[in-house]
Please model this.
Amino acid sequence: MSPHPTSADPDLDHDVIIVGAGFAGLYMLHKLRELGFSARVLDAASGVGGTWFWNRYPGARCDVQSFDYSYSFSEDLQQEWTWSERYATQPEILRYIEHVAERFDLNRDIQLGSMVEAVTFDEVHTRWSVGLEGGETLVCRYVVMATGCLSVPKRPSFVGLDSFEGESYVSGEWPHHDVDLTGKRVGVIGTGSTGIQLTTTIAKDAGELLLFHRTPNFSLPAQNRPLDEHFTREMKAGYDQRRKEARTTTRGYPVPPILSGSSALEVGAEQRREVYEAVWSNGGPVFTSSFADLLVSQEANDTAAGFVQSKIRAIVDDPATADALTSFDHPLGTRRPCVDTGYYETFNRPNVSLVDLRDDPIIEITPAGIRTSERSFDLDVIVFALGFDAMTGALLRMDITGEGGVKLRDRWSDGPSAYLGLTMAGFPNLFTITGPGSPSVLTNMVMAIEQHVEWLADLLEHAQREGVHRIEADDTAEKAWTQHVVDISDATLFPRANSWWTGANIPGKPRVFMPYIGGLGTFQQVLTDVKDRGYTGLALS
Ligand code: N01
Model:
């Protein structure tokens, strides 16, 4: 059994409380245990898995390739586990997470059914108290928020919502029992990654499916396929090398060699089209990496957007539906592109229709269905796929109080600010995994999580060794980093879109581009540099 630092302070229940039992919380627990810290994970859910526990709607699947969207910290684990498809389904990912929890004996330190409500700093004793729904309070030296970037669903707030007499479901709170949609008249609201996956899957069962669509999103073909033994053997033989390379990339996974890397405007139209065709056929979200300048030059972006539009038009039979699906209001890639298997083809089915909300918005939910400004739709089932209060939602849902009684909610009233996406001035010993200001959602989340967890574990070990009890971001360093995150996003096309990356999807949320756009590899260099220079920007005392 490893040493137990809490023995130095009998008033602590644990050295570290970790909030969240998803990919981040599990790895943080494992890492801290290895270092001899006592740690406990709290999660409101009845099982591990985080976002993959909750998002069990029909068709839920990851759009990062399965062999990349998985832990790299254990060579044994990655050799043992075999993915069945190029893009894993939610049930398979959840099985994987459950397997990891068992394999590394994590469950004994995970307390499920535990909703954290208040997290309060005690500046006299330099410790945090973590209050749970129901009254239990735990005291610890450090708090790690592994609360996820997409863990608070945007709930419907339509007029008349409660009057609906049929069944209704929120995608991020899908029930654990089977939902039989066979032959029913189903309305889906929302056409982000979730709505698109739902639509493609539900259309096969529903008697009639109406997709209520407001802003067209670009969707790219996954080109999903089963992974055969030969592929898996080859992949595993080079796994270690692939992961090493992944850590240096922008996206957190290697992109295929067909990508040209040059400017889209430096090549002729025919060569450009060949590149787009090749990347389209290869599939996945890497389409926006076809050329180096697609996300910084509108002119370059237009060439890619035009290609995708022509593909959609070639697939969708009904011209009015194709028009609605291709009237994009943002450059390709400035909202997270969706990745689909047959989304556009779905509109050629006789039981599927698109309801364009742009000129005919939803007015209310009625007992019978949905009423827009011009029409009424009778429905048996309504599915809300409205997205998430991303990146800050899970943190601000808790009442987090730092030094001097300052609330995180107040500190972030104009938008989030954090040093390296990890820690905030005035909130000593509190850390966020993949928080605002880190690459997180712009990359392969699992690699981003590992990067943050490993750096934080090193920091806590350093603090332990040096007798440091208090770690806090320097206000100036935090502001400088936050400004840098904004400045580099301003140099791109990203801020032009109303995306959840900017908070634009939540009424009243401050509009700030939240993730660090510089990429996982560049961020690693920043983290390494900060550490090598003795944790610059942090006050250790
Ligand atoms: O959410 P979204 P999501 N009336 O915010 C519409 C990850 N993810 O859950 O754009 C009518 O993208 C809204 O319309 P508009 C992935 O990172 C990954 O789909 O505001 N419509 C939009 O169409 C993804 O980017 C995977 O006009 C309303 C939709 O709801 C992120 O999660 C799978 C509305 C929300 O789209 C979020 O995706 C799933 C209203 N009042 C999710 N309010 C994979 O790995 C909202 N909408 C594949």
Observations:
- The CA atoms of residues 245 and 254 lie 7 Å apart.
- The chain is about 30% helix and 15% strand.
- The chain has two domains: 14-152+390-540, 161-238+249-384.
- The domain at 14-152+390-540 is CATH 3.50.50.60 (FAD/NAD(P)-binding domain).
